[in-house]
Amino acid sequence: MIFFQLNRESPIPLSRQLYEQLQLRIVSGELLPGYRLPSSRRFARDHGISRNLVTEVYETLVIEGYLESRTGAGTFVSSGAVLKSFRPRLHESEPEEEKSVKVSGVRFETGIPASLFPRGHWGRCLRDAVLYGRNELFGYGYTNGIPELQTSLRTWLGISKGIDCRKNQIMIFPGTHQAVRLLMELFTDDDRWGVIEDPLLPSLRTLVLDSGGKILPVPLDEEGMKTGEIPRDLAVKYLMVTPSHNFPLSGIMTIQRRIELIDYVRRTGAWIIENDYDGELIYKGPVLSSLYLLAPDKVIHIGSFSGTMYPGLKIAYMIVPQKLVESVVLQKERLRLTCPHLEQLALARFMDSGYYDAHVSRLKKHYFHLYRHLAARLNACFSGRVEILGIGAGQYLTARFPGTVFDEDLRKKLEKAGFSAYFGHDTTSCPGDYADILVFSFGMLDKEEISRGVDILADVLNHC
Q1: Which domain holds residue 139?
Q2: Which residue in 108, 107, 101, 40 sits closest to 75, CA to CA?
Q3: Which residues pair with 123 in a beta bridge?
Q4: Same-domain check for residues 322 and 397
Q5: What are the pLDDT digits (tens) for 371-416?
Q6: DSSP output for 149-200
Q7: Which of 33, 69, 287, 291 ranks highest by number of CB atoms within 10 Å?
């Protein structure tokens, strides 16, 4: 008689326990091929369990090939079910998580303050989406995004950015990186080049460079990409720019540079990818105008809600020139780049209700106060030895420290002292040009933490 130890106090169902123990003994060779198992009635009686439970387990193992049932003879272990190299994996309890030790340092890293997020309004929009959303939203489909969000975005884009487009041109993506990934696959060509700003957001820079295409970084200055440095004889497929607020120099592309760029793509047949990653967060004045407005037939406009809602929402949008719509749709279907429907519906309701604009307005005021405090603290601690770059926007401030080289040795010293920020040379293919730059992302910090972080930086630099 074989005996199995079944634990009725375990959260694992008895059927699962019996199944795993039988499976283990067969695969390990403890029950040899041809071994006849007890009848389901006898097995159930010997172990004090239901006969139906035993029958179900036997039948499952027969289907999977571990057992074979012979009419009138019984149930036997099948041949070919022994794995000599098999080592059983026992159920183990999860190790206790180590208690995190709070380091008394300051990390200037990207993040959104959860305390400012309107959880009540968003929760009601999510609830309404689940309770009252159309039945179709619980299924597959809507590769390009649900119609409700496309409609809401079309209205919002027209009001906030002055963009007028058809609904079918608005594609919803699970984040900016997935939108760029699609374009890289669509545009990567062995014979044509991609042109990117240098420096560029590190994550996008990595994504583009890893795409397999030929990439030409073109430097930035205070007016944006230096369009005059794009070789006129170069076969270019696309140019990727952030004209409203480039990273990390915080500059805006001038109208002269924008016109030069548009003239270039009209002459060469290339496309412009416009990444408007935080255009809504310019502190003063209206949202800056988009390149798309100047050339809607040549510009692909990308925006995201990660920087205004929360990163985990993973909803971005792309406005595609009508000529590219079919190609993008086919590629999107092939890559299965879809977003959860109910979150899309909740976002549409959130925007239609006015909650989104109100939330962005609060974020801008909050970030503006932090930006001013950080700038003032830097100027106080580094009088005459620091230069604040670009415009005030978003949740970061870029500063140049003439004469200082932020290399790996200095990074280690700063981290040991409890200070962390983005180094300018991490964003570029020409590290020497940006070795004296730091990027302070302050969205997750308060004024006291910002002051403490600048004090740590000053203390380390003063002793170098």
Answers
A1: 118-354
A2: 40
A3: none
A4: no
A5: 999 999 999 999 889 999 988 888 999 999 999 999 999 999 999 9
A6: HHHHHHHHHHHHT-----GGGEEEESSHHHHHHHHHHHH-BTTBEEEEEES-
A7: 291
| CA-wise closest residue to 179 among 300, 294, 269 | 300
Q: Which residue is associated with the tokens 């209700």?
A: 353
- Does residue 344 sit in the same domain as residue 326? yes
Segment 156-210, tens digit of pLDDT: 999 988 999 999 999 999 999 999 999 999 998 778 999 999 888 888 888 888 8
| Amino acid present at 34 | G
CATH of the domain at 451: 3.90.1150.10
Q: Is the pLDDT of residue 44 over 80?
A: yes
Instruction: Kindly provide the residue ranges of all beta strands, DSSP E only, lying in 364-457, ordered along the sequence.
Output: 387-389, 396-400, 419-420, 422-423, 437-441
Nearest-angstrom CA–CA distance, 190 and 303: 28
393 part of a folded domain: yes
- Assess whether 231 and 328 both reside in one domain: yes
Domain boundary among 337, 354, 371: 354
Query: What's the whole-model pTM score?
Result: 0.84
- 57-90 core/surface letters (b: 16 or more CB in 10 A; e: else): bbeebeeeebbbeeeeeebbbbeebbeeeeeeee
CA separation for the pair 454, 464 (Å, rounded):
16
C-beta pairs of 127-136 under 8 Å, 24+ apart in sequence: 128/346, 128/349, 129/342, 129/343, 129/345, 129/346, 129/349, 130/342, 133/341, 133/342, 133/345
Q: How far apart are CA 243 and CA 158, in angstroms?
A: 19
Q: Is residue 379 part of a domain?
A: yes
For residues 291 and 414, membership in a common domain is answered with no
Q: Which residue in the block uniquely carries the two structure tokens 């309770």?
A: 131
- Same domain assignment for residues 332 and 184: yes
Residues 333, 387 within the same domain: no
Residue 309 sits in the same domain as residue 413: no
> Could you report the per-residue pLDDT of 246-298, keeping only the tens digit for each?
888 888 899 999 999 999 999 999 999 999 988 888 887 777 789 999 999 99
Mean of pLDDT values over 329-354: 95
Check which CATH number belongs to the domain holding 221 and give it: 3.40.640.10
Task: State whether residue 108 is helix, strand or coil.
Answer: coil
Q: Are 160 and 153 in contact (CB under 8 A)?
A: no
Rg (CA), the chain: 30
Q: Which residues contact 259 (CB under 8 A, 6 or more apart)?
A: 294
SS3 label, residue 398: strand
> Which of 354, 382, 399 is the C-terminal boundary of a domain?
354
Number of domains in the chain: 3
* Average per-residue pLDDT for the chain: 90
**Which residue's structure tokens are 């890289």?**
184
The CATH number of the domain where 18 resides is what?
A: 1.10.10.10
